[in-house]
Amino acid sequence: GCEDSGICRIDPDTEEITRWIYPDTTFDALVYLPLSHQLLVSEVRKGEKAIRFTFVNSDTGAIVADTPTIEDGGSVASWVTDGGDLVYGMHPYRATLFAYSLAERRIVKRLHEMGLGDNCNQCLVFGPDGRIWGLTVRCVFAAERDLSRFEVVADYEDHAGLNANRFGMCADPEGRVYFPNGLHLMRIQSSGTIYKKN
Asked: Which residues of the chain have pLDDT under 50?
């Protein structure tokens, strides 16, 4: 029901909160870009259909640049970056994983219509094998960084009513990947073995 989006920044030393409001916008996933010290945000503006890739100064909240990039419905539900030129994103409306070049300011590769079930929010991480791992309501998948191919790492039993609005997937230094599944916390090893904590 909100007509305006916002970004909040919390100072870890003082816990002071800074808020920036962006009228007539719907912000979705965002990612910090260490080379430019900016945030990359998926944005749709009121009255528009295109998904904008919006760059925000992480110190001031000012919009540095914004470009209509995906002329289609939906949003970008997740980003992942290794700090280099390419940022990977998931466009769940088309079940498409894409690579966006920061230098060229355009999408340079896509894996179209992956067909693995609805993609979850904040669902991308670099897995223990260096590939891009993602989460759908049915499985964990892995894609090569050049987006030449993908495969299912593991299927799992859904405990969240097939709801894609689950947030967060993360990896630890030992090569385990964690994700929420209803009331369960799931852990998957690089071997594809899944463990469930009730």
From this structure: none
Q: Could you give the CA distance from residue 198 to residue 185 in angstroms, rounded to a whole number?
A: 7
Task: Tell me how far apart the 2 most distant CA atoms of the chain are, in Å.
Answer: 46
Structure tokens at 164: 């894609």
Whole-model pTM? 0.90
Which residues, in sequence order, are bridge partners of residue 55? 40, 65
**Nearest by Cα to 132 from 96, 94, 186, 157:** 96
Residues in the chain: 198
Residue among 108, 185, 171 at smallest CA distance from 134: 171
Q: How many CB atoms lie within 10 A of CB 137?
A: 18
Question: CB of 144 within 8 A of CB of 127?
Answer: no
pLDDT tens-digit readout, 156-198:
988 888 888 877 899 888 888 999 988 889 998 766 566 555 5
Asked if residues 161 and 182 have their Cβ atoms less than 8 Å apart, the reply is yes
For residues 190 and 179, the answer to whether their CB atoms sit within 8 Å is: no
